[in-house]
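Database export, one record per block. Field names are fixed; values are copied verbatim from the stored entry.
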Amino acid sequence: MKNEFDVDKDGVITEKDLDRADEMLEIELKEEKAEFNKKIAMFCIGAIVVLMTVLLFGFVTDTRVGVLSDTIGTFMFAMASLAGAVIGVTSWMNKS
């Protein structure tokens, strides 16, 4: 029977083995959080790029852009704020 907590493979699970397993689990969880935060930030930046492309290349008429200008501005501000917050929090989490 293979035991994942037995780091030195001596057949005995010691306190050192359990501490090492806890450290590895903590590292894995931090990595998963960072990857999820990266996906959120990339989605926000991608949404901004797509919206700007749609607006700049004339896929939407000027009258509709005029009607939606307040909503578009709010959306852009929200996406940029969310991306900045996620990147900032991720950096802060990695620092401590």
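Remark 1: Residues 15-56 form the longest helix (42 residues).
Remark 2: DSSP finds three helices and no strands in the chain.
End of record.
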